[in-house]
Amino acid sequence: MENKKGSLKEKAKAQLAILRVILPLLPFISRVILLHVLGKSETSKYLDLKSVLLVSILQRLCDPPQNKLQSITKLQALTTRDVPVKGRIWVSHVAAVVPPDTSIRDVLIAAIEGTKRDLVPGSADCRIPEIVPVEAEWTGYREDASREAKPPAVTEEEKYLRMMKGCKSPVTVLYFHGGAYYLMDPASHRPAVKNISKLTGGRVYSVRYRLAPQHPFPSALLDALVSYFTLLYPPPGSVHEAVPPENIVFGGDSAGGNLSLALLQTLLEIRRQNQRITWFHEDRHVPLPGGVTAISPWLDVVQGMPSWKRNQTWDYLPPPNVLDRKDPPCAAWPSNPPRRHVFIDDDYLLHPMASLTLSKSWKGAPPVYLTCGWECLADEGKWLVKKLSHDGVPVVFEEYEAMPHVFAFILTKRPEAARCLAGLTNFMKVAVENPAKIASRYTTIKARTCEEVKIDVDSLSPHSQDDLRKMAYMMIGTDSMPSAPIAKL
Ligand SMILES: *[C@@H]1O[C@H](CO)[C@@H](O)[C@H](O)[C@H]1NC(C)=O
Ligand SMILES: *[C@@H]1O[C@H](CO)[C@@H](O)[C@H](O)[C@H]1NC(C)=O
Ligand SMILES: CC(=O)N[C@H]1CO[C@H](CO)[C@@H](O)[C@@H]1O
């Protein structure tokens, strides 16, 4: 009884909070509704009213007027709140054990320096982050639970074991949540991750990597690499057994899609350098995973490509805002010493590991799945797909007409969202269970009908790598174009 009262109170509080956000937007909302009903907005031809409203409201919330801007610390507190686990989901909290040697970090730094060598002139030294016990949530689908079920009062290990009993497939997704590298948490992404485990029949290792601005590049990348090694070579005391690399698929949305691909590029470079990693006193080789996936990945760190302008109508992301932010000052920002970008030092803005569009080569990568909408980040995703394909990587690309950034987790009731999740999770299953069956495919998926239209991979992007560098330099506002040799598409 007490409990029920408590949860009703919580509900009322949450509803009040939503009202407080929505009320001031009422005039704006009425206008959106009117334009939609009259068929006068571009989006009305493709989307239903509810989706249009949701996208427009998100658009306003992501780009508030200067006097309504929240500090980074406040936004972080809001988006990393822990929420109680509930319903058809297993969550088992774990933390990676810190290895006794620093080899994993040394090899990462060597890889970062290695990818830089012939692309970026100058000699900025990469920051060296601490190795920490990276937390993660083992997540699985809890089929026999009710929608309101609470987790049983058992140990985290027991939850893991019960989760494993429900796993029907060896698919193990190493997942990185989105949030522009400074927001969100595995807890905010549980509903999405639960659906991924349900649809693959496998399990997800959803990583609580360190966030910027407190932990800038390459902290998150080190946490990603440590998490991968923890799966492959479980440290003493782990609840899981060693996961064969071919059963692992990387996944992530937005900044997490970036991290998933940045981890792949790191592994490729470690392998190009013939490096091995000493991990808990054993000399370990560095294998590639079975596949890599990315939903609306953020790849160009300075947001310089044309879709940032062209697709504003369709997306809720604010206009380019990562450089020289105007947030009200707080404990986290501006950083000390100050820098221009939330998660990367100024010297590293054009590093190929920071802007993956500037990476040298993806040769030898396992199959990649990439999806995007008509969104601000469309151009960088499409550019990368073309590059991957030219480098001989099997790629499955799905572009969704009229859809915004990471729509599959936001417009969840739309047929396009269901189609996208099916596309993603099918790829994950096939990459693990039948990799020989993956062949490159490039498709546009039409709004409403989900009709599929093939696209020619070469039509995906008109830009050369040189164009990309010029765009990036323009965004940064420097005219000292370096004359280093550039990998050509
Ligand atoms: C997960 O899938 C269910 C249908 O099985 C759907 O109702 C729900 O909206 C989805 N959630 C997310 C976040 O994709
Ligand atoms: C992608 O991830 C890498 C590794 O953490 C980071 O250096 C880079 O800046 C990220 N890029 C974008 C565009 O988020
Ligand atoms: C409606 C529209 O212009 N959509 C565009 C969004 O950006 C992508 C990538 O540049 C284009 O292919 C779409 O046509």
TrEMBL record:
<dbReference type="InterPro" id="IPR002168">
    <property type="entry name" value="Lipase_GDXG_HIS_AS"/>
</dbReference>
<dbReference type="InterPro" id="IPR013094">
    <property type="entry name" value="AB_hydrolase_3"/>
</dbReference>
<dbReference type="GO" id="GO:0016787">
    <property type="term" value="F:hydrolase activity"/>
</dbReference>
<keyword id="KW-0812">Transmembrane</keyword>
<dbReference type="InterPro" id="IPR050300">
    <property type="entry name" value="GDXG_lipolytic_enzyme"/>
</dbReference>
<feature type="domain" description="Alpha/beta hydrolase fold-3">
    <location>
        <begin position="173"/>
        <end position="408"/>
    </location>
</feature>
<keyword id="KW-1133">Transmembrane helix</keyword>
<keyword id="KW-0378">Hydrolase</keyword>
<dbReference type="InterPro" id="IPR029058">
    <property type="entry name" value="AB_hydrolase_fold"/>
</dbReference>
<comment type="similarity">
    <text>Belongs to the 'GDXG' lipolytic enzyme family.</text>
</comment>
<dbReference type="Pfam" id="PF07859">
    <property type="entry name" value="Abhydrolase_3"/>
</dbReference>
<keyword id="KW-0472">Membrane</keyword>
<feature type="transmembrane region" description="Helical">
    <location>
        <begin position="21"/>
        <end position="39"/>
    </location>
</feature>
<protein>
    <submittedName>
        <fullName>Alpha/Beta hydrolase protein</fullName>
    </submittedName>
</protein>
